[in-house]
Amino acid sequence: MAAAGLERIVRAEDVAHMGFTEVIRHAPYIYSQYRKLVASIKSSRPNVAVLIDFPEVNFRLARQLKHLGVPVLWFVSPQLWAWKRSRLRLVQQLVDRMMVIFPFEAAFYRARGVAAEFVGHPLAALPLPTITREAYAAQHGLDPEKQWIALLPGSRQSEIRQNLPKTLQAAAILNLYRASPSQYQFLLPIASTISRAWIANEIASRESAGDKLGAGRPPRIVLVDDARAALHHARASIVASGTATVQALTIGTPFVVVYRVSRLTFALAKRLIRYPAEIPAPLDADGHLPIAMVNLIAGARIVPELINRRFTAANLAAALRPLLDDTPTRAQQIAALAEARAKLLPASAELAADPLRRVASAVVDLLQCDPVA
C-alpha cells in the first residue's frame, strides 16, 4: 500500500507483538502510536477505512471511525471464533463489510447474525514460484543435489529469539542422521520486517555463545529473501505458527509447526481459547487444542505442532525426519495439504482468481456512498 502512494503514519511491525505479557511490556509505545494514528484520522477525515486484522487496535479505531461517519471495511477477520466472542456485538455495530479469508469464518459469522463474505485467501490465488531449482541454487550458492530444509522462525525479533535456538539445534541433529554431515542445506528466508545483519548476528551469536548445536560442525544456514521459493524447493520445512503456516500450506511441501511463548501467555491461552462447532479441533495427548491455522482449515491435525514444552530440538528433529524420506507419513501430509489448500478459495472461479480484487471492489462500493462531510 505504501508503494501505491498511501502515507504510513504508524509502522505496523513496530507495534505488533504476540502474547499477553509481550503486549503488556510494550503497551506504552503501542498506545502512543495509536494516539498518533487517531490524530491523523481526525485531521484527514478519510472517505473509507480498511481495517486489517489486529483487533486490539482496530476495534478502538473502528469506534473513532464510526463517530466520524467513516464507513469501515474489515479485511482478515479478528479471531473472534477462538476467543473474546463478546466482540461480535462490536462487529455488528461498527463494521459495514466483513471480508473473511478462511471458509469456516463465514459460517461462524452467519450462524451468529453477521453478514460476512468469504473472498478466499490471497496466498492461495498466487501461482507457484517459477524459478527452477538449478537457478535458485546458483542464485544462493546451493548444491541442487542436496536436500534443502527451510527454516521460518518468525517475522518479528521477539519470535525469532524464542524459536531460532531450538530450530538450529534440530538442524544440527538432522545432520547427524546422515553419513555425510553436509547432506542437508538449510534455507532461512528473511522477513521484510527483519534486517539481514540482525538475523546473521543472531545465528552467529548462538554459535559463539556455545549453544549445544550437536556434535560436529554447526549446520550451514543460507539466508534468502523469498520465503515462497524457499518453501517450494525445500524437501521439508520448520515453520513458526502464524501466517507463514498458511504460506507453507499453499506451497504444499511438508512441514512442522513450532512456537514458543511465555509460560503465562501459554497458560492464559489454554484457558481462554475455545473453538465453535464450525471448527473441528481434536485435542492432542496433553489435552491442548490445535493452534496452527493449517490444522484449523483442515479440521484435523495434518501437520505436527510443537508448542512450548513440546518444542525441543529432539522432538523437532524426530517430527521432521519422516518428512525428508519417501515415507507414508510424507505422502499422507502432501495429500492432506492439497485437500486443505483447496478450501482456501471460493467455489466461484471468478472470485477464486483474485480475492484481493473482490475486496477492492467492496471498497469502491463504500466509496460510492455519501462521502464524509
Structure notes:
This protein has 373 residues and is of the alpha/beta class. The protein folds into two domains: 45-125 and 348-367; 133-342, 3-Layer(aba) Sandwich (Rossmann fold). The chain contains 17 helices and ten strands. It has helices spanning 12-15, 20-25, 27-44, 55-68, 88-94, 103-110, 133-140, 157-176, 196-208, 227-233, 243-251, 263-272, 293-298, 313-324, 328-342, 349-353, 355-367, and strands at residues 49-52, 72-75, 97-100, 116-118, 147-152, 184-189, 221-224, 236-240, 255-259, 305-307. The strands form two sheets. A six-stranded parallel β-sheet has the order 7-6-5-8-9-10, with helices on both faces. Strand 5, helix 8 and strand 6 form a beta-alpha-beta unit. Helix 3 (27-44) packs parallel to helix 4 and helix 8 (157-176) packs across helix 14. The longest helix has 20 residues, at 157-176. Residues 209-216 have low confidence and may be disordered.
Question: What's a quick, concise take on this entry?
Answer:
With 373 residues, this protein is of the alpha/beta class. 47% of the residues lie in helices and 12% in strands.
Structure characteristics:
10 strands, 4-stranded parallel β-sheet, 6-stranded parallel β-sheet, 373 residues, 12% strand, 47% helix, alpha/beta, Rossmann fold, single chain, globular, 17 helices
Number of strands: 10
Q: If you compute it from the alpha carbons, what radius of gyration comes out, rounded to the nearest whole angstrom? A: 22 Å
Which regions have little confidence, pLDDT < 50, spanning 5+ residues? 209-216
Order of helices and strands: HHHEHEHEHEHEHEHEHEHEHHEHHHH
